[in-house]
Amino acid sequence: MTKNPKKEIVKSPKGMHDVLPDDFKIYEKIIEKSKEIAGFYGFLPIATPHLEHTELFTRPLGETSDVVEKEMYSLKTKGGDSLTLRPEGTASIMRAYAENGMVSWPHPVKLYYLGSFFRHENPQKGRLREFRQFGLEVLGEGDPIIDANIIKIPFFILSELGFKNAIVRINSIGDKNCAPNYKKELLNFYKKKFNYLCKDCKRRFKENPLRLLDCKEESCIEIKSSAPQMVNHLCAECKEHFKTVLEFLDEGKIPYTLDNYLVRGFDYYGRTVFEISLEREANSSALCGGGRYDDLMQLLGGKALPSAGCALGVERI
User: What span, in angstroms and rounded, lies between the C-alpha atoms of 151 and 138?
Assistant: First the structure.
């Protein structure tokens, strides 16, 4: 008579984690301070569903983005709908804006959100498959002061939480008027380096050359160091917009460094992009990232809506 094998306790899925009581105290402190400062600047709370129609993300994030190609948790319902656990917050906020008649609200519409997001990527320090974010979105305003404020507010949140060595990395990636010419020059540069690119970058070369600048492979980082810079290809309007953003940051005494190769991983970004990380810490993950996305609503099928936003990573903080 054989004995039944001993059953093991089921563990949490890879890349998912419990927030235990001691950690929860820190989690609540981060959220409460973020809500307090966001509220002071006139942001209102909003919550969107964890599940959205898959198309909401494939359209604006880009079919060739790592998130869409490799990292989304998607499922088919019994009714045949394709749904996805939200991998980021901005597309959902734009969908909620359009669906709930916020176009009739006083503008700009300023919203904050918090909650869990999901990406099926390789778990590592500061990068989990379920992660929590606190996000800020300003919808319906193209003034450069909005870009500066969407940088200043998370910087203040981090300062209030005790980070004294945070620094902003910032760049402008232009708009649909000047970015295409830069992409052509980037392709001409990388064409000569093609054989030295990693496997992923060889694919990016054909599908979205801007993402070549976001590769973390050492060999590709070395190649990038001599690539053309977008700042030299900005049109007059984008150049003036970026200059004004930096002047507002100077006025607010926000420390920043120009990173001419900084890009964000989604197709909807244009003009200002930024990350906030810890100064003097090698390879430190960004605690906050964001930028301007004036074309996002059009990508979703609506009318143009100049907007900007950011998200803070709670686990990383």
Answer: 12
**pTM value surpassing 0.85:** yes
Contact status, residue 160 vs residue 317, Cβ threshold 8 Å:
no
Identity of residue 147: D
CA distance 179 to 5: 62
What pLDDT, on a 0 to 100 scale, did the predictor assign at position 68? 67
| CA nearest neighbour of 227 among 261, 196, 257 | 261
User: For the chain, first and last CA: distance in Å?
Assistant: 55
Residues whose CB is less than 8 angstroms from the CB of residue 75 and which lie 6 or more positions away in sequence, other chains included: 82, 83, 84
Question: In angstroms, rounded to a whole number, what is the distance separating the alpha carbons of residues 33 and 28?
Answer: 8
Q: Residue type at 121?
A: E
Q: Is 113 helix (H, G, I), strand (E, B) or coil?
A: strand
Other beta carbons within 10 angstroms of residue 204's beta carbon come to: 23
How many Å apart are CA 273 and CA 111, to the nearest integer? 19
Name residue, tokens 């001599």.
226
**CA separation for the pair 41, 160 (Å, rounded):** 15
Taking 70 as the pLDDT cut, the residues of the chain under it are 1-5, 62-69, 126, 280-284
pLDDT of residue 225: 86
Residue count of the chain: 317
Q: Which pair of structure tokens corresponds to residue 9?
A: 């306790």
Predicted confidence at residue 282, as pLDDT, reads 47
Distance CA 11, CA 276 (A): 34
Tokens standing for residue 128: 């989990």
Task: Starting at the earlier edge strand, list the strands of the sheet with 130-139.
Answer: 44-45, 109-118, 130-139, 307-313, 288-292, 272-278, 166-172, 256-258
